[in-house]
Request: fold
Amino acid sequence: MDQFNELITSGRLTELLLPWGIKIGLAALIFLAGRWIAKMAANSVDKIMEKAGVDATLTHFLHNVIYAALLIAVTCWKTSRRAWKMAVAASPTRNKTCTYTRLESNLDTGDGP
Reply:
């Protein structure tokens, strides 16, 4: 409890919480915008399929599949970018050339892993 009181009185609590608050706020904004876009895309597919005379059950099913897929894509987008950056940064062979190019050149010369 003393450590918490010390954080509050020293002003370090805002120093620690401000970056996290900004990240959480931006994540919520991205999620809400992505949810709105996913809903609009699913509704537009609904309208197109209804005009084409597709069965209502299939239309409803595809609406849910499209909405879920886009919502998952929005949710995973930021995480996958961060994971990719961490994987590249942790790579022991990190330099200007791509790992894929390096593997491809090893296969061409027969010096594969």
